[in-house]
Amino acid sequence: MERRFNKIPKLHIKKGDNVKVLSGDDKNKTGKVLSVLVKERRAIVEGVNLVSKHKKPDANNPNGSIIKLEAPVNLSKLMLVVGGTATRIGRKRNNEGKLQRYSKKTGDFIK
C-alpha cells in the first residue's frame, strides 16, 4: 500500500546543507545538497551517486559524449554535517517562538 501525505512533510535536510552518506557505494562521502525532491524523499548531492549519461550528437557536439551526472539519493541515507561531524537533527522553538532545526549532538541551532 502506498503512503499518502496530505501536506508536505518537514525534512531534516535542505538545499545548501552539507551532508554525509551513511550507506551504499558512496559511504562516508560528504557533499553539498544541490536540490531536494520532497515528494520522492530524495536529494541530489554534489559528487555523490554519479551515473553515466550518453549524450546524442548535436550541432554543438557532433561526436556525442558521455557525461557524469549526480542521481538522487534517498534521504534516509543522508545525515547532516554540522561543525565537521555528522549529527542527528531535532526541532525546537527559538527565542522568537519559531520552530528551528538544531543539532542533537551539540544542542546548537542550525542557520
**Radius of gyration over C-alpha positions, nearest whole angstrom:** 18 Å
Strand content: 35-45%
Can you tell me the residue ranges where pLDDT is under 50 for at least 5 consecutive residues?
Answer: none
Share in helix: under 10%
Mean pLDDT: 93
Number of domains: 1
Using the 3D structure, state the CATH architecture. Answer: Roll
Characterize the main sheet.
6 strands, antiparallel
Shape: elongated
CATH class: Mainly Beta
- Number of E strands: 10
Main sheet: which strands, in order across? Answer: 6-3-2-1-7-8
User: What class do helices, strands and sheet pairing give?
Assistant: mainly beta
Report on this model:
The structure is a single chain. The protein has 111 residues and is mainly beta. The protein has one domain (18-103): Roll (SH3 type barrels). The chain is 0% helix and 43% strand. The protein contains no helices and ten strands. The protein has strands spanning 18-21, 30-37, 42-45, 50-55, 65-70, 73-74, 78-82, 85-87, 89-93, 99-103. The radius of gyration is 18 Å and the shape is elongated.
